[in-house]
Amino acid sequence: MRWDGLVSPCLRLSHGYREVVLGREKEVIPWFFGDLKQQTLADVWDDPGYVSFRWRLRRALYASCLDCNLLRSCEYAKTTESDCWGDSPACSDCLWDRNLIRCP
Predict the structure, then answer these.
(1) Number of H helices, E strands in the chain
(2) Would you state the pLDDT for residue 104?
(3) Any bridge partners for residue 26, and if so which?
(4) pLDDT (0 to 100) of residue 103
(5) What are phi and psi of 101, to 5 degrees?
(6) pLDDT tens digit string along 9-56?
(7) Which residues contact 18 (CB under 8 A, 6 or more apart)?
(8) What is the CA radius of gyration of the chain?
(9) How far, in Å, are 6, 45, 50, 104 from residue 79 at the CA level?
(10) pTM confidence score
(11) Residue 75 CB-density burial (10 A; 0-12 exposed, 13-18 middle, 19+ buried)
């Protein structure tokens, strides 16, 4: 949850910025599943889109940019908006999900 009540699925997607992943620049687009000024936390948590997102991530059912030989020419890899499987937001090269970096 951000200071303004917006509920983001993770720290990485809570703000917009540019990051560099393995020497490649990527635009991180903020992503939110709800707003606590308009919904309860239980309503946000139980939202079908958020439930589906968590289910997909727990099972690592998303495209893997880090393993793809088309990475250098792929347009999807330039932002977190969506991936080549049609998932939004894209967690395809999230270093946190891969356990390459950890939150403090």
Answers:
(1) 2, 4
(2) 60
(3) 19
(4) 66
(5) -135, 155
(6) 998 899 999 998 878 899 999 999 999 999 999 999 999 999 999 999
(7) 25, 26, 27, 28
(8) 14
(9) 21, 25, 20, 25
(10) 0.82
(11) exposed
Give the Cα separation of 61 and 72 in Å (integer): 22
CA distances from 37 to 5, 9, 16, 48 (A): 6, 17, 21, 19
Give residue for tokens 């951000």.
Answer: 2
pLDDT in tens, 51-92: 999 999 888 888 888 888 888 888 888 999 999 998 899 888
Amino acid identity, position 23: G
Which contiguous run of DSSP H or E holds residue 21?
strand 17-21
Q: Which residue has the tokens 């970096």?
A: 101
- Amino acid, res. 99: N
